[in-house]
Amino acid sequence: MNNLQSTTKLANGVEMPWFGLGVFKVEDGQQVIDSVKWAINAGYKSIDTAKIYENEEGVGQAIKEAGVPREDLFITTKVWNADQGYESTLEAFETSLNKLGLDYLDLYLIHWPVEGKYKDTWRALEKLYKDGKVKAIGVSNFQIHHLEDLMKDAEIKPMVNQVELHPLLTQVELRDFCKKNDIQIEAWSPLAQGELLDNAVLKEIADKHGKSTAQVILRWDLQSEIVTIPKSIKEHRIVENASIFDFELSQEDMAKINELNKNHRVGPDPDNFDF
């Protein structure tokens, strides 16, 4: 983990960058095109979008304009709840792929565990994977019981589980379960949508290292073996977020950050989500 191109090896051998750009709530058109191009120009390889973000076309346009070889990038999108089911997932995948203007995806995720549907959806992801249309498949917002239920019938285990994860919601049990089952954990909303930026403990650690609180949180992710995808629409922030490979948090720093956990969510609870 010594630079922005550093990767983790997924269960199937695919290399996934530890660090990437998320584009949740980034407007389609120029805003998302600029954000993605700035990130790629700054050395980012991984871009994470989703059908429901309604900006896949802009992400695709930015990839085209950035002029970086396709194989150097790692592109993720997700199947939305309304499209879950076997045939409808296969259709949704093709729609997303066309919007992105790509021949294949690096990672395709089930966005939420829609009860009664996520197993059929997973079968569709397994087919897409076997057909070579996607390099890796996974889930998002799955709790331990969802993963256990899915894996009872799955031919292929999820390779990634992307969940809300930050120092106020450290998800230790889920992380341990995923590690044991060779599922890479990935954090969405790693900065708790800004709620942590004025935290006194984090500020103190940041001052000690001459870094921002955001950089400290993102460094904590990496040292905790968590893939992270902070979002920003400001070029200087996109560059700053990634400037975390020139310092290391001590064990004491890490322990202090771990102690901030309050099991506090800024997003929906997967067990009480209105699907």
UniProtKB/TrEMBL annotation:
Substrate binds at H111. The keyword NADP applies. The keyword Oxidoreductase applies. InterPro entries: AKR, AKR5G, Aldo/ket_reductase_CS, NAD(P)_OxRdtase_dom_sf, NADP_OxRdtase_dom. GO terms for molecular function: oxidoreductase activity, acting on the CH-OH group of donors, NAD or NADP as acceptor. The record marks K78 as: Lowers pKa of active site Tyr. This is Glyoxal reductase. Residues 29-261 form the NADP-dependent oxidoreductase domain. Keywords: NADP, Oxidoreductase. SUPFAM superfamilies: NAD(P)-linked oxidoreductase. Belongs to the aldo/keto reductase family. The lineage of its organism: Bacteria, Bacillati, Bacillota, Bacilli, Bacillales. The active site is at Y53.
